[in-house]
Every structure is written in C-alpha cells, then in structure tokens.
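Researcher: Here's the sequence for the chain we discussed earlier.
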Amino acid sequence: MKQQGEERFPYLFQKGSVGRLETLNRVKYAACCVSNYNNRDGSVTERELARIKVIANTGCGIITNQGAYPDPRGEGKCYYTQLAIYDDRFMPQFEKIADMIRQNGAIGIQQLLHAGRYGGVDIGYCVQPSDVPQTLPHFRPPRAVTKEDIKRIIGEHVDAAKRAIRCGFHGVEITSFMGYLLANFCSKFTNRRTDEYGGSSRNRARFMTEMITAVKEGIGDDHPLLVRLPGNERMDRYGGNTEEECLEMMVFAAEAGVDMISVTVGWQESPDTIFARDVPPGHWNYLAARAKKLIPNVPIAFGVRLPDPVVANKCIAEGQFDFWEVCRPMLADPEMIHKIRENRLDDIRPCIGCVLCLARLFRDIPYVCTVNAQLGHEVEPEYHVRPAARRKKIMVIGGGPAGMEYAVTAKQRGHDVELFEAGDRLGGQLAIHADGDLASKEDLMRLTAYYERRLRQLEIPVHLETRVTADMVNGFKHAFDVAVVATGAKTAADKSIPGSERVVTVEDVLSGSVECGQKVVVLGGGQVSLCVAEYLASKGRDVSMIEERVRIGYDASPTWKWRHTSWIEELNIQTYTRARVKAIGEAHITIIDKKGNEVVLPADTVVAGNRKSQQSLVEELEFLVDEVHVIGDAVLPRSLHNAIHEGYRLGTRV
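Model: Thanks. This is the structure I predict for it:
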C-alpha cells in the first residue's frame, strides 16, 4: 500500500531507469564533491564509512559516491583528503561503500573527479588544456597537457572506472562541473589549443567524447556511464562558454552514448552566486528544461538550488528533467526522502542555502552543515541522541536557535524541558534579522518554523514574554536541576563615546520600533552591521559604515563575503575601515579615519552594530541551580552554526 507522500508525489516515487538498470524512484543523491573526512593518502576513514552508512539509508534510487581522483601523480587531486582510486590497493574501501549502497536497493555510482585546473594540491602545479593563468591565488600554476598526456589521462579514467565496477558499483560518473578537467577542455576560457582538441565547440568537446567512448567500452553496456555538465558556466567575465555552448556540450555527450547527464551550474571561479540564499529556489530550472528539450532520449538529472519536493515533482511531471538530484538538502536532513514519502514535509530540517558546507570544503577542512550538527560526526557515539542516564528537570533560558536546538535534543533524551523567552516570539536574533535580510527570508523563516513545530511535537512548554531573573529562579525552589543560558547577544553603543545616548540598536531598526532618518551611520562592520546597512540602503537611505578592523565582513562566511561586497557596491554603501568614532552629535558623527584625520559625516541616525553577549544570569544562577551551562552567542557573538551546534552538543551530553 502506498504511503501518503507517494500518492502526493507520484513522479518522485515512480521507477526510473539509467542505462539498462531500473531505479527505485526518481531521486539521485549527488556526490556533493568530497567530504574531506578521509586520509591524506586517499584511503577511507571510519568517519567516512559512518557517513556513507547514513547516505545509503537516505532512500534515493541512485546514490553517487564522492569523487575519487584517478591518477597516481595526484594531478587530479583537488582536496588534501580526497579519496583515490588509481590503484587496486584502494579497492577494499570502495567494496565496503558499494556494498552499503546495494544493501538498500539503490543504484551505486562512483564518481571520478579529476580536478584539472583546481588539482595538484600536493604537487605544486595543475594540468589543463592550455597554459591559462589562475584567477584565484590559492590554486596551483598550470601546465598545458600534451596529446600523450591526454591519452594517458583517458586511460587512467578507464582503469579507475573498471576498478569501480569490480568493487561492486553499478556504474560510473565523470564530472565536468565546478570547473574541473572536462570543463577545462570544453570551455573557451581554459581551452585555447590550436590542435584537434581546441577551437570549435566540437573540437573542445573531443576530450570528453573520447573519454566517454573509452570508458563505456571499458565497463560495458550493462554499467551506466553518467556525466555532470554545466548548463551555465557563469564565467562570462573571463570569456567562458555561453549558455548555448554549454548546451552543445551536452548534445555531444549524448551523441557519444552517455547514459545520463547531470546538469550543474558554475565554476569555483564564477564571480556570481549559484546555490546560496540570494538565488531564489528554482531559479536554474530552465537550464534542465532546455537540456531535456534538446536531448529527449537521455535522462536528465537536476537539483541546483531546488530544495522543494513539490516543485521537483512538478518538474518531472512536466518533462523538465527526469531525476531530482539532491545534495545539500540531504546534508541538512538525511531523512528527507522518507519524510516526503510519509507526507511530513513540515518535519524536514531545511537547508537554508548558507553554503557553509562549501566554505569549509574549499578550505580543505571537513564539511559541516549549519543546521545538522551531527553531519560528519556519525561515527562518534557522543554525537548521537541516547537515553539520559538520569532524568533531569531543565530550564532553557532563551528561544533563539541555540536554546531551541538544545531543548529539542534534551527532550528527545528523556529530560523534562521548559523553555523561557523574553520576547513575544521564538527565533531570537535569527527571527529579527530574517526580517531585514536581502537574500531569501523564507529560508531563515522555515528554520524557525521547523523548531517551533518540533517544540510542539515534543510537548515542550514554551513561556513567551517571560524574562528570567535570579529572583524568579530562586522562587522555583530548586524545581529545576539544570539551567541552560541561551540569552544570546545584543547590539549596544559604546557608552564611552560622547553622544552615545543618541545611538539606536540594530534590533530597534529591524523590529520597526525606530524610524531611521535619511543619513544613517552604522557602527561596526560584522555580519549584523552589514545586514542592517544593506537593509536600510535597499530602502533608499544613504548609509555609511565605520569599522575599526582592517576590513568589513570579518566574521562572515568566506563563501558569503563576496555577496556582501557586491551589495555594498550595488547599494553605494560608504565604508570606513581602521576608523574609530570620536563623538556623536545631533546630526553628525565625528570619526578618526585610517590616516589619523578627523572626518565629520552627516548622520540623522546612528546604529550600533557591535554585539555583546548577554551573560548577567550566568553568575547569578551559580548557587541557585545544580548545573548552569552557557551556549550560543551568550558565550561569544558568532554565527548561526555555532549556536545550533553548541545547542545540539550540550543536548546530547547533559
């Protein structure tokens, strides 16, 4: 008997096919590049195997294992702890992974990832079709490959593909996404060759089509070969392929006999955003639809910035693509497909498009997820929710992300939990700043709504508009064993500055309790200051920012800093770094700039953007409750992932 979600989303849960194989459903787990959980020599770790066990249980019809580099020199190696598949000695680890995937009825695909322009992480150089200088300084200097190199590289891919099949994978995926080797040959930007591998679109595609032909011949028709290709490189600034040329490459791949095309977007060097919160969900769907129209007989997989199963089901129904390819949403919630099958969409922990995963990945450290604190720690027993040894009565003070995550986790372990929030709604600073966010507010609001639902489901009492004091706790007469202080941080003026009484806070502005004048000066250059500055500038205010540090956005995620930089430029926000405030007047502010000069700026409104932790309760509660713990911004003002992860970790332990 079908479950409710299977009735509601019939196209997601209908059987599909790739090559000669039938799939359980139309959902493909994307490789998500690499995890950085493994060893420097390319061997797998127990940490990775524990993660694969989770992936194998996601319920996807096709599961793609993360990219492994296929060459012994390491020219294709992009990340310090990327898996290797260039030698038989690595086979036992891939046999374990393939077996886990097969046990759950999924089609297992091993991705081969030769990073090309972004490779050579251990050897100090990279290879690509032509000697085109890097645009980003952290990548290695390039060497152009010879025709002999091309034959060798193709042969190494064939050997690696055969090895993957012998390990038990059903098929193989070669990848041209994110600007890796296939993309380097296909793109006008990095392929400036004058031989048969360069020039026209078909010549630039020759390396790819020869590889497809060779790999298919090597693994046989019973084993599908997939390829990931960009529908849009987002490299116009550098003279990359047009959208039309990207689609041409897909046609060439289809003609060469590939069994599925995964449509992606962008390179690592792309100056534009691709799958972050500032891109509306579904924005790139048209690329998959164009590909499907051009290549009706080859299955198209797609899922770039498409976290919504309702839209995905509709797209498959309308023939825009054949498989919903999911990566980041299942980092956020590995149970997503099972919840969709049970029609429990509101129970899905949402991916908020913050791309913290990529920020970590691109710096060669293990990726994590803002909203899923367990990701990457599945092998560690202390990261699992287990019954508490002793049932405790716990009060959580603060209804922001840290407090809500802790309350939910602790309740699941069997504790009696109550949550107290001074404001009239849950969400804390997250809810306040969502109101002024220029990216997708809905992503942040969905996260708050998710927590509210979990609190209700777990029947955790929530006391809004209740400011906890030491006297209140004393009045409880030791009714609580534990107090968790999750009071967060608030913006405040530096009272040592003359005129500081005229300063308003970010909370005042974003909550609407203060109406700003036309000329606004924001004190501070961190994430919170940027949020309010961008919000006010988008409303037509003339905004300046004053920051004592060397740069604006010092605490922003590396993959999000560029977005703030572009908004500052687009909204004409004036920034003063290495500057300090001398005095605040009625309609102006006096600063000392980085050269030591005194500068007077017009200022109808001055907004304090620097955050201070709210810690007064910590000391006051020390002798009123058996245990007192502090989490989130109440410890130190930081990012959303710090708050959620600390709430979860404390929840699994106390």
